[in-house]
Amino acid sequence: QVQLVESGGGLVQAGGSLRLSCAGSGSTFRFNAIGWYRQAPGNQRELVARISTSDTTNYADSVKGRFTISRDNAKNTVVLQMNSLKPEDTAVYYCNTWPGVRFTWGQGTQVTVSS
Question: Does 29 have pLDDT greater than 90?
Fold first, then answer.
């Protein structure tokens, strides 16, 4: 079973940047499309960006133009570069497969954007 470890979150002022990393153990990680999801308090978990095995990317309208997703299959990692952060980006960020969640959720990484 693939284990997912998210890292890179933190506290940043509005307009700042963060770089999140998702590390997946096991050889099957690289054969899956991977998404970055986020969940703010009181809200449902939502998909913000995804990347296919052929590096095709897709973004939620709320982050388009500000976030960039990429993957390094040699390192079994998927990175989410987040620029021009807004207070509404505050959430716990997770990675997992898309479509459909196949792996056990990791602990996520907290992103807090102050105004």
Answer: no
